[in-house]
Amino acid sequence: MGSGVQHALEQLKTTGVRITPQRHAILTYLMEAMNHPTADDIYKALEPKFPSMSVATVYNNLKMFMEAGMVRELTYGDNSSRFDANVSDHYHVICQQCGKIEDFSYPALHDVEHRAEQATGFKINGLRMELYGVCKCCGENAE
Question: What predicted TM-score, i.e. pTM, was given to this entire model?
Answer without folding.
Answer: 0.66
